[in-house]
Amino acid sequence: MKDLHLDFIIIGTHKSGTTWVHKCLETHPQVCMPQNPSGYSANKKVEPEFFNDTHMPWRSDGNAISNYPKGLSWYAEFFTHCDANAIKGESSPIYFHAPEVPERIHQHFPKVKLIALLRNPADRLFSLYTYTKLNNVGRTRVPPTFSEFIRLPEVLELSLYHKHIMRYLEYFPREKIKVLIYEEIAMGPDGFMKSIYEFLGIDASHKSEFTGVRVNSAESRMKDELRRAYRDKYGKYFGKAVSFIGGFFTNSAKQQKEVITSCDRDYLSQYYQADTKALEKLLGRELQFWNANGQ
Hints:
- The chain is of the alpha/beta class.
- The chain has twelve helices and five strands.
- It has a five-stranded parallel sheet, with helices on both faces.
- The termini are far apart.
């Protein structure tokens, strides 16, 4: 692909429905999402993570390298399978809070449309904490409790939504950035996706088979990774391994179950109060339900 034209990017945020939206868009006949180039390992949802140098603050696996120096030719390889008439886009949630990303995206694709999904900060951080703790054992430096996790400044920085959106607004006009609220998916997933299709200028009547499906939960991801590990290791004994996985996961989940305490929720509500107020003004809508008991 000599000259890559990118139509949209889902810039985030983690644990706010980005994988679900990615899957829905992937089924749209007018949309082309990235695929791993030849020679790369398969992945259910491909996140090129091209524009960022920044990675999640708890990474400790030594693989937190930047893809940006590899150049646009490397990035374009993710879209070589795309039909010429399809609109092309990707989703890399880390883009939302990485400070270097907005300028880089604008430098290469100044007319691209951006989609940001936001969620109650407390619920999002708890989901992120649970997901990371369950799925990345040995590759992260996640504190043992959620209460300790949210006392880390670099973690709190992730959900300063207004601050990060304003960084994008330095380079892109407001009409190029669609901001959506995760909690509204449950109110009507088809309508939620229809608003995205309309924003992208494609057939808004499309119904994806994923609109009623939950994807990328901590539990389902952990089961998938365990299944792959056992299939690779035990081969013909895979069936018995699957049964073992189910029992292991159920028992582990019961033992590791943790909830957000009212103290931690109040702490986060107070911490994000000013940023949320500024976000409400920017979006022209109230987000008071974020101060309730969560979703």
